Amino acid sequence: MIETKLHDDVLELVMNDPPVNALGASVRQGLAKALAEAQGDPAVKAIVIRGGGKMFSGGADITEFGKPPVEPWLPALVDAIEASAKPVIGAIHGMALGGGLEVALGCHYRIADPEAKLGLPEVSLGILPGAGGTQRLPRLIGAEAALGMIVSGTPIPASKAAQAGLVDKLSESDDSLAAEAIAYARTLETPRRTGDRSVAADPAVFERFAADNARKIDNLDAPKACIEAVKAATELPLTEGQEKERALFMQLISGDQSRALRHVFFAERAAARIDGLPKDIRLRPIGRVGVIGAGTMGGGISMNFLSAGIPVTIVEMAQEALDRGTGVMRRNYEATATKGRLTAEQVEKAMDLLTPTLDFDALASCDLIIEAAYENMDVKKEIFARLDGIAKPGAMLASNTSYLSIDEIAAATARPQDVLGLHFFSPANVMKLVEVVRGARTAPDALATGMALARKIGKVPVVAGVCYGFIGNRMLIPRQTNANALLLEGATPEQVDRVHTAFGMPMGPFQMADLAGVDIGWHRDPSRIESLQDALCAQGRWGQKKQAGFYDYDGKRQPSPSPVVAKIIDDFRVKAGITPRDISDEEIMVRTLYTMVNEGAKILEEGIAQRASDIDVVWNYGYGWPRHKGGPMFWADTIGWDRIVDGLMRYKDRLGDDFTLSPLLMQRAAEDKPLDR
Ligand code: 3HC
After folding, report:
1. Which of 24, 306, 506, 575 gives 20 to 30 Å between its CA and that of 383?
2. Which domains does the chain have, with CATH numbers?
């Protein structure tokens, strides 16, 4: 794990534990041993620590968390590095993250490849840097700058780290880093220990920082603990500060939030794995993508590929729609440029890769064609039948349908093996989730290519099987059915939504309906009023786009309770002979959240999702499920399957005639076991 090379009087220690040189027990033991031996070796004048492979280190080994500790502990190792009587130089390339950066902070000097990134991302795992990072970083770059890095968890480029004083020297390049580090080591006579420094800050700095970030860190334990630990660095000597850091670390790591956030980390990586596929499968080359439809979805989808440097041919039926669609894309890019996140050249580069056309035959040159047309099976079948006659052999044909059967769509072609679903979420240029829908006859290489391509354009893809609504939208169905029923029985849209936002969702079912459009799926006959949705739509309350839906809007997307809606609901109750009753928040939880979990369990038992954690990834990235609650399936596991079953049984009579309990859910509740197979 640790390779040692003596270059005359400089000892080079190379951490070699692919893929990320995580600081597991054997790496720690190897480093500690080599360091101790170097202290007693008169031939060694200085020590260089660097990482082999693609990075310095991705940090502590997260898989060790929760297991019995193995010595040496990372904090003790970092202390030993700092205590070295001979100068130690950290040579950083790729990434130095978390414990990796803490090892570098224990070094007396740091040299970095200009392309390297340095960060303390522990907060995104619900913990804080626990190997002295909260104490040494402020001593090196100041309390305010350290707060920014530690509380955001966002890595900074080496150039910025050099300006901040975190890096002493930038190398010419990645290739020359090792040689430059050794040469640099020869110029250094004595250790220079960060722990010997002190850092001062006005206590008001911490209060101000917490107040400025209140919205982001509200309800989260880790960022608050990070602030407390950095404050300790300004008040206490190193050892006492480290004790404080350790105490906070131990508290966080045993908490539910950290467990949930670590689950999300591994869930996201597990989602990339496709069951039953050979690892060495050959991907199909995708040089050009075709998109059918220049509406909101088609435009957003296209932008993902353009931004990744992949040319797109976008097809519409009328020039006006094509111009409108490309205009929106350009304006979206320009808005991003105005915020400083793109340069004018990057905007032009992306737009130059776009070929707008009315000629359907132009799709013949595309390796992947994504249909983003109207959500109607007949329309889709017609498009795919036409594509069958145009697309080149081996081209992948994808539908962005949110609900419809990929198998039925595929049957409209003579090449069902090339057909799959690529379900993007709106706004498609922003939302990370893509459900990659595997039809009964989708070829393994087409599926693998879909997954790899989605990752290439920066998305988080999850494999889903064919069913109405796939994973995410299928789980929305019981939630919305119950939410609607609750309104009739006595709840208000505000009450139902409040339960969801208090839980941590960005919005509740009715705010979401207003955003998506209350008129989606409406029959468009104002005289036919069979549901609340019909009644709202008949009065032009189509959602945010009309400034009226389940809520009133003030032009700034800010919902306020609507007396008109209250009256519509009242009238409906009278017509249906329903006497409203008080509805508890607990009932709302059970009927709108537990029912989703039940649907998730069915999705799993039917093999629509490969694993329970995939369902969590869908809800994290597609619907804003609070990451510190892991995802619906993880959350259910945390509160207990038996509690979910009990709750559902208690309200069984109110869950509608179609409601059935998932057998898998009942079985797991009886066995008290997690849902994943
Ligand atoms: N510990 C254990 N395994 C890790 C790991 C870590 N710190 N970081 C990554 N891995 C594993 C991943 O799970 C994945 O395993 P898999 O192939 O079996 O799925 C494999 O390494 C490759 O990871 P990625 O697919 O994420 O590789 P990328 O090249 O895309 O990204 C990375 C590399 C940026 C380093 C990314 O993996 C990452 O962000 N890792 C976590 C970084 C982090 O949070 N570090 C802090 C750890 S906590 C800590 O240090 C506590 C200390 O303060 C005491």
Report:
1. 306
2. 2-254 (3.90.226.10), 289-466 (3.40.50.720), 506-576 (1.10.1040.10), 585-671 (1.10.1040.50)
CA of 501 to the centre of ligand 1 (A): 31
Pocket flag, ligand 1, residue 130 (CB < 6 Å): yes
Give me the pLDDT at residue 557, please. 82
Which tens digit of pLDDT belongs to each residue from 270-289?
A: 999 998 888 789 999 999 99
Distance 230 CA to ligand 1 centre (A): 24
pLDDT digits (tens, 9 = 90+) for 114-148: 999 999 999 999 999 999 999 999 999 999 999 99
Our mutation pick for probing the ligand 1 site, out of 28, 62, 77, 135, counting the most ligand atoms within 8 A of Cβ, is 62
Say how many Å lie between the CA of residue 606 and the centre of ligand 1.
Answer: 32
**Structure confidence by residue, pLDDT tens digits, 214-239:** 988 989 999 999 999 999 999 999 99
Regions of the chain short of the pLDDT cut 70: 676-677
- Locate all alpha helices (DSSP H) within 551-640, ordered by sequence: 563-576, 585-589, 595-605, 612-623, 632-639
**For the whole model, what pTM was predicted?**
0.93
Encoded amino acid at 580, one letter: P
DSSP 124-145: GGT---TTTHHHHHHHHH-HHH
Do 448 and 461 touch, CB atoms closer than 8 A?
no
Ligand 1 centroid – CA 20 distance (Å): 6
DSSP states of 393-407: TT-EEEE--SSS-HH
Whether the CB-CB separation of 362 and 386 falls below 8 Å is answered with no
Q: Is the CB of 630 under 6 A from ligand 1?
A: no
Which residues does the annotation mark as catalytic?
102, 122
Closest ligand 1 atom to Cα of 102: 53
